[in-house]
Each structure stands twice: as structure tokens, then as C-alpha cells.
């Protein structure tokens, strides 16, 4: 049976967070039951993109500091890092407030800009990954994930956080290799099976709802979740927001592939009463994830499938959506093959693989995922 610690935490006051994280780890049996002291530990936060901590885009600095303090006090050797969506890891760490904390405790940033191909013959959907040198050098990984929504997989939490161990442009290119939510989720499960993080700590003190994982809205949830099982942790996250866990493919395939457990009878919740934190008004899509990689005739396909849409009044024509698009020939671009930037970029939906990288990385909240009327009637009921 998998254990998930549910711990109340009402603010990002660093001392309050420290007490809450310490309690969560103790509920799991304590650090020495999870990680040997002679192992080098990678702290893997969510550093999706540069953002002020109060936007809830990334793991909060107070959670990061609390975890560092606990490991340092117990004489562990730790380093940290993540591979952001498209920016330099060190700059994102600085802008999100983590580098200042790391420097304070002499914790170095690992190499997430470069890596190499790692074979994984046990993989169900892929037999290799492009893994950063930092993740390869770690003896143990502690995943400091963020409680957020996600347009492709419904939520981004414990399982999805390890995508940041894939370095550089290999992350967006993975969407081209696994072009729908189902295959992409299977790949994420394989990735976790390869990396085998020892502990997962989810920052849900202030979560993100709505148009996540970057453009949503902060919402207080006042909770930290701690577990050795990422599937169980994400399943509890779903229960907190009144989302059926079986709607999330990383959860379903996580259990099928042996990564963890998601059913109520297989999870023991310890710590505080989960019912104190349930938010049934949390803004999330409460419908099953379906494959959007259909072989429709192109005109019919684009009248049915969800699609990213640029909100022109919000667009500043920065071109980030163009840069991160992994589709062959670019599914979104400025006019005249990118040479005319007087107007916002436009989509060629025939090329769009519905990975929503553009929506995920837009810094202006200028891209939303919308469903055509016919799609609402036929597929997304």
C-alpha cells in the first residue's frame, strides 16, 4: 500500500513551511529511511519558466529553502536544477528566486543544459531518453513538484515533473515523437521508471488553476503532499480538486506500468484530514483525456479537435510560441515565413499536433485552448 502525507501549511513563511515539510518527511519514515547519507541528492524543482513566485508557475522558494535546510541539517550532499521550457536554467533559477536561496546554503546548480542518450530497454513506449548530466550524476532524486493544471494531461504534478531531467530542446521535440496525450503520458511514466526519484514533495500551498501550467491563476490550497509514490500523490491531488484520477493518463498508465498505485483502497493517507483541503470549485477540465491524434480529413479535424488560439489583444509578438513549436514546418508562425512581425503569429492547424507547447510557454497568457462547437457535441461531451 502506498502512503501519501497530507500536511496543512497556510503560508509561505519559511519557518512554517520548514515545519510542514519536516512533518511530511517524518510521516514517511524520515530521511535516512529514504536516502543513504553517502548518496549525492538532486533536488529537482519545477522551473518551467521565469516567473515571480507569487504567480504559482514554479516551485516556491520557501519550499525549496525548507527542503535544503532539512537535508543540510542532516548532513546530506545536495545540488539542484531543472531544464526550463526554453530559457537558460541559471537565469530562470535566478528570476524565480531559487538561485539566491541555493547560494545562501552553498548548493550548486547541476548541468541541465547538456546531457547524453541513456538506453532504457525496459521502456514500454520508448527505449531511450536524452538525460541531463545533472540527473545522471545524482545518486538519488527528490522531486519538488508544483500543484498545477495542464491542458494536455489535465494536471502537472509528481509524474510530469521529471520531464525537466530531459535537457534542452529534447523536451519540446518529445512532443513531436509522442504527439498525443496518451503516448506522451506513457513516455512520462517510462521516464519516471528510469529515473526512480526517492521522494516527491508537492507544493500546493498556493496552486495554479485554469489555463495552466503557466497562464493560469493562483489559488490557495494550503497543503503540502509528500510521498514515495508519484502516482498515489497525483491521485490524491486529483481528489483534492474533485477530478477523477482515472481521467489522467499519467495516473492510469503509471499503475499499469508498475510505477505506483492510484485507487483509494491502495493508498493510505496520513497526516491531516484530506477533506479539509478539497476544493470542488477548482478550475480544471473534469473530462477524460482522449487522443487528439486522429486521422480525420484536415477540414473536419480542425472543426472537431481542441486547438490553441491566440488572444490578439494580449499578444506582444515576442515569438516564443513560434520558437517552441515542435511541429515540422512550424504550426504557428508570423506571416511571410516569419519575416513580418507587425501582426501576431497565425496557426496552420493542419500542421498542429495539439501538444500545446505554445500555450504552455506563452509569457503573456495570450494563448488559450478552445474547443470548436462540433467538438463539444461529438468528442468532448
Question: What is the CATH H-level superfamily of the largest domain?
Answer: LarA, N-terminal domain
Evaluate the radius of gyration. 20 Å
Helix proportion range: 25-40%
Overall body shape: globular
C-alpha termini separation? 35 Å
CATH third-tier fold name of the largest domain:
Rossmann fold
Poorly predicted runs are none
| CATH architecture level-2 label of the largest domain | 3-Layer(aba) Sandwich
Total beta strands: 14
Total helix count? 15
Largest sheet: 8 strands, mixed
- Our estimate of the beta-strand percent is 15-25%
Which series of helices and strands comes N to C? EHHEHEHHEEHEEHHEEHHEHEHEHEHEH
Structural class: alpha/beta
How many domains, as an integer?
Answer: 2
Q: Could you give a short description of this structure?
A:
By secondary structure, this protein is of the alpha/beta class. It is built from 15 helices and 14 strands. The longest helix has 15 residues, at 181-195.
Amino acid at each position: 500500500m502506498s502512503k501519501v502525507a497530507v500536511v496543512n501549511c497556510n503560508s509561505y513563511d519559511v519557518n512554517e513551511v520548514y515545519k510542514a515539510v519536516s512533518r511530511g518527511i517524518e510521516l514517511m519514515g524520515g530521511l535516512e529511511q529514504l536516502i543513504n547519507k553517502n548518496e549525492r541528492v538532486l533536488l529537482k524543482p519545477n522551473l518551467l519558466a521565469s516567473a515571480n513566485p507569487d504567480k504559482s508557475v514554479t516551485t516556491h522558494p520557501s519550499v525549496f529553502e525548507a527542503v535544503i535546510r532539512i537535508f543540510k541539517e542532516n548532513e546530506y550532499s545536495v545540488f539542484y536544477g531543472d531544464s526550463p521550457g526554453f530559457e537558460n536554467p541559471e537565469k530562470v533559477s535566478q528570476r524565480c528566486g531559487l538561485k539566491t536561496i541555493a547560494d545562501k546554503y552553498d548548493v550548486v546548480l547541476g548541468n541541465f543544459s547538456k546531457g547524453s542518450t541513456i538506453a532504457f530497454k525496459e521502456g514500454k513506449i520508448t527505449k531511450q531518453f536524452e538525460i541531463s548530466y545533472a540527473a545522471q550524476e545524482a545518486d538519488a532524486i527528490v522531486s519538488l513538484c508544483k500543484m498545477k493544471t495542464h491542458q494536455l494531461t489535465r494536471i502537472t504534478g509528481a509524474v510530469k515533473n521529471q520531464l525537466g531531467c530531459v535537457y534542452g530542446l529534447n523536451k519540446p521535440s518529445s512532443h513531436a515523437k509522442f504527439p498525443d496525450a496518451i503516448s506522451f503520458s506513457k513516455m512520462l511514466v517510462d521516464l519516471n521508471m528510469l529515473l526512480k526519484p526517492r521522494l516527491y514533495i508537492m507544493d500546493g500551498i498556493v496552486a495554479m488553476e485554469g489555463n495552466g501550467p503557466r497562464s493560469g491563476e493562483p489559488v490557495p490550497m494550503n497543503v503540502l503532499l509528500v510521498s514515495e509514490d508519484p502516482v498515489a500523490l497525483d491521485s490524491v491531488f486529483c481528489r483534492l480538486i474533485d477530478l477523477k484520477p482515472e481521467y489522467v493518463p499519467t495516473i492510469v498508465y503509471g499503475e499499469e506500468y508498475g510505477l505506483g498505485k492510484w485507487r483509494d483502497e491502495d493508498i493510505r493517507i496520513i497526516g491531516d484530514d484530506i477533506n479539509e483541503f478539497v476544493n470542488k470549485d477548482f478550475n480544471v477540465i473534469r473530462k477524460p483525456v482522449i487522443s487528439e491524434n486522429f486521422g480525420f480529413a484536415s477540414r473536419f479535424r480542425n472543426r472537431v479537435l481542441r486547438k490553441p488560439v491566440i488572444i490578439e489583444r494580449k499578444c506582444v509578438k515576442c515569438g516564443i510560441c513560434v520558437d517552441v513549436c515542435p511541429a515540422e514546418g512550424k504550426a504557428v508562425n508570423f506571416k511571410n515565413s516569419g519575416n513580418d512581425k507587425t501582426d501576431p503569429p497565425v496557426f496552420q492547424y493542419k500542421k498542429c499536433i495539439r501538444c500545446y507547447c505554445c500555450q504552455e510557454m506563452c509569457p503573456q497568457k495570450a494563448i488559450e485552448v478552445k474547443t470548436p462547437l462540433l467538438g463539444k457535441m461529438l468528442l468532448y461531451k
